[in-house]
């Protein structure tokens, strides 16, 4: 069997390379990075919430747990969970 004109395959390859290069350029353009900026108001709110208050609250809870005086208020937990489950069942 004799195969003629094997050069034709070589003519397709440059076309294919052009297509692949175009696709790569499109991918580069579509790969944008997201940016997030925090407003000055949000930064102020963050600074206002004192870490000292949080640390104090955590220490109090640790002491209650260690001494065995910490009690879970089931009514408070139910009050916080109920709206979540109502919203979940509606959707």
TrEMBL record:
UniProt record similarity statement: Belongs to the FlgM family.
InterPro entries hit by this protein: Anti-sigma-28_factor_FlgM_sf (IPR035890), FlgM (IPR007412), FlgM_C (IPR031316)
Record gene name: flgM
Native species: Paenibacillus polymyxa (Bacillus polymyxa)
Pfam families xrefs: FlgM (PF04316)
One of the GO biological process terms: bacterial-type flagellum organization
Biased amino acid composition, Basic and acidic residues: 20-36
Chain positions covered by the region annotation Disordered: 1-36
SUPFAM superfamilies, A to Z: Anti-sigma factor FlgM (SSF101498)
Domain Anti-sigma-28 factor FlgM C-terminal: 34-82
Entry protein name: Negative regulator of flagellin synthesis
Gene3D superfamilies in UniProt: Anti-sigma-28 factor FlgM
